[in-house]
TrEMBL record:
Pfam family for this entry, one: DUF4872
Biological source species: Nonomuraea marmarensis
Record PROSITE patterns: CNMP_BINDING_3
Domain Cyclic nucleotide-binding: 249-309
Protein name: BtrH N-terminal domain-containing protein
Length: 337
């Protein structure tokens, strides 16, 4: 027996927004990926390092699933989240909604998925599931992973049961839109100001603009931080540019979100923020290229240059978020098409 829902399997760049797009389009809400990311207040920064890590990690977004929760709140969506330690119950939590005609979001470890190109453990990966048969599950993943894909039911069970950093206990979720959802345009300012507040007022120095400044100092030591710079530094740069970030450590997505907002709302603060994030996105890509060169050549001068760019980015993004935080104290004009 095969159960497959008719869905729009449009792939995009980032896993969580890809899955959210599938679920929301099924509910009749079609928003761009940058708009989903921005309304979910998805942008952030973390410099993550610890004794049990092989190499530091640079993160450019909020914690896995926070984006989904934020978006559901903004758009008045009913978010039903289920978690369990039972593999049997976990399957029932997925099969039930699909049998009833509703696609389901899953958080899992991408390492176990048959189609996944890069075999790296990542427990915060999110996909949309829209069907299954006796052997395989049918999923929607990002553009780079193939959009509409399939994986064996065995591999899916392993991916959902995995434990480790960022994993969840067989987490699945559905979204239901209300009869009269709030206007997405009306939620732009609250989403932006909430993101700006978190970025500017991070509780620890590893987060937000302070985290970027810290990374600028520590990246200069990365050749001494690893015994295999030819592997670890290019891998870190690859994660910044290619690992579902949309490029520039999610800054391309936020730049495009702000650009879309400037077409809807007239605000000098919004235009300032967009201009600064356009500059920041270019610099993030330049920094990633320098980190790659440092790993390939062993030349620390590239890391010094990257560190200088990070310090510039801390200043630029702080100024951008300060401008965007002022949106809450003004009444931007609505731009009519």
């Amino acid at each position: 027996m095969t159960t497959v829902i008719d869905i729009d399997a449009r792939g995009t760049q980032h896993c969580e927004t890809t899955a959210l797009g599938v679920l929301l389009r099924h509910e009749g809400l079609d928003l761009s990926e940058p708009m989903l990311f921005g309304l979910g207040s998805g942008l952030s920064f973390i410099y993550w390092d610890s004794k049990n890590m092989g190499f530091p990690f640079l993160g450019g977004r909020v914690k896995p699933f926070d984006l989904t929760r934020n978006l559901a709140t903004r758009l008045g969506l009913e978010l039903l989240v289920q978690e369990t330690t039972s593999p049997r119950r976990a399957w029932e939590n997925v099969a039930g909604p699909i049998d009833a005609g509703h696609p389901v979001g899953l958080q899992l470890d991408s390492y176990h998925l048959d189609y996944f190109g890069s075999k790296v453990h990542f427990g915060g990966h999110v996909v949309a599931m829209y069907g299954y048969d006796e052997h395989d599950a049918y999923l929607v993943d990002t553009d780079q992973q193939g959009r509409a894909v399939s994986t064996s039911l065995t591999s899916l069970a392993q991916a959902r049961a995995a434990r480790g950093p960022m994993t969840a206990k067989h987490r699945s979720f559905t979204l239901t839109a209300p009869r009269n959802p709030p206007s997405a345009q009306g939620q732009i300012i609250p989403a932006i100001t909430a993101c700006a507040d978190a970025f500017l007022n991070s509780p620890i120095a590893n987060l937000g603009h302070r985290g970027i400044d810290k990374a600028g100092k520590l990246v200069r030591t990365w050749l001494q931080r690893t015994g295999n710079p030819q592997r670890d530094l290019p891998q870190a740069a690859l994660l910044m540019e290619k690992a579902g970030t949309g490029g520039a450590l999610f800054r391309n997505l936020y730049r495009d979100f702000l650009a879309e907002c400037t077409q809807l709302l007239g605000s000098s603060h919004l235009r300032t923020g967009h201009g600064l994030y356009t500059e920041a996105a270019t610099l993030w890509t330049e920094a990633a290229a320098l980190i790659t060169k440092a790993g390939e050549s062993g030349d620390a001068r590239y890391l010094v240059q990257a560190g200088t760019i990070f310090c510039d980015l801390s200043r630029i993004e702080r100024a951008a978020m300060q401008a965007l935080s002022c949106l809450g104290s003004e009444t931007p004009s609505v731009i009519r098409p």
